[in-house]
């Protein structure tokens, strides 16, 4: 057996179990330490972006219904990386305009997240948006038509996290990271910082600019 931390988990076989517009599920057979094999089900994903938009010490939060937990959650403006060839900052700018009716004169990278590595390849790049101006908000449909936008003081948002009122992991990470930057304890990264965690498997099987459309 190889020393811990050195085994190569080669994929011996892969089977697609489910394909839907915004995700897929595959089963990989892996070479395990000691010579055996094991199977792992993986949820494939496009990846996503989220935005911490700050104006005069307040952060823009949306309250959106999520059927998986059958509850409305406090979240950041966010969206899937579901346009072929589009970079992360362009998606973030579009989502901020559509969900919050905002444009930003200054953008930075706050953090990158692997949201559920035990079974899902979803990764999220979280941006900090400042020097905000109002723009026309996009047309909403489905759950987003019910979505509320509110401006919450950053200190209050941090307290809401600690009280268990903000539980969306992307919002938690983004708000706490933004607080570190805005309080002068950390520096953000430039928007052209490479994002090597962005998933590719699901997007590679789609044809056309809208990756949600299945051929």
UniProtKB/TrEMBL annotation:
<dbReference type="GO" id="GO:0005829">
    <property type="term" value="C:cytosol"/>
</dbReference>
<protein>
    <submittedName>
        <fullName>ADP-ribose pyrophosphatase</fullName>
    </submittedName>
</protein>
<dbReference type="Pfam" id="PF00293">
    <property type="entry name" value="NUDIX"/>
</dbReference>
<feature type="region of interest" description="Disordered">
    <location>
        <begin position="188"/>
        <end position="215"/>
    </location>
</feature>
<dbReference type="InterPro" id="IPR015797">
    <property type="entry name" value="NUDIX_hydrolase-like_dom_sf"/>
</dbReference>
<keyword id="KW-0378">Hydrolase</keyword>
<dbReference type="GO" id="GO:0006753">
    <property type="term" value="P:nucleoside phosphate metabolic process"/>
</dbReference>
<dbReference type="InterPro" id="IPR000086">
    <property type="entry name" value="NUDIX_hydrolase_dom"/>
</dbReference>
<dbReference type="GO" id="GO:0019693">
    <property type="term" value="P:ribose phosphate metabolic process"/>
</dbReference>
<feature type="domain" description="Nudix hydrolase">
    <location>
        <begin position="44"/>
        <end position="174"/>
    </location>
</feature>
<dbReference type="GO" id="GO:0016787">
    <property type="term" value="F:hydrolase activity"/>
</dbReference>
């Amino acid at each position: 057996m190889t020393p811990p931390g050195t085994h190569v988990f080669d994929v011996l076989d892969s089977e697609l179990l489910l394909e839907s517009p915004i995700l897929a599920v595959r089963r990989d057979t892996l070479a395990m330490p000691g010579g055996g094999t094991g199977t792992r089900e993986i949820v494939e994903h496009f990846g996503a972006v989220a935005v911490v938009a700050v104006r005069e010490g307040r952060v823009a939060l949306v309250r959106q219904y999520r059927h998986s937990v059958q509850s409305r959650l406090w979240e950041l403006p966010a969206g899937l990386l579901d346009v072929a060839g589009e970079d992360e900052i362009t998606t973030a700018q579009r989502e901020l305009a559509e969900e919050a009716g905002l444009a930003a004169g200054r953008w930075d990278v706050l953090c990158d997240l692997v949201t559920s590595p035990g079974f899902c390849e979803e990764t999220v790049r979280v941006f900090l948006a400042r020097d905000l101006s109002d723009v026309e908000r996009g047309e909403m449909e489905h759950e987003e038509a019910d979505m509320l936008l509110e401006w919450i003081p950053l200190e209050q948002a941090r307290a809401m996290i600690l009280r268990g009122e903000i539980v969306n992991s992307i919002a938690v990470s983004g708000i706490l990271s933004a607080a570190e930057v805005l309080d002068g304890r950390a520096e953000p990264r430039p928007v052209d910082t490479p994002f090597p965690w962005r998933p590719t498997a699901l997007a590679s099987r789609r044809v056309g600019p809208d990756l949600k459309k299945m051929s």
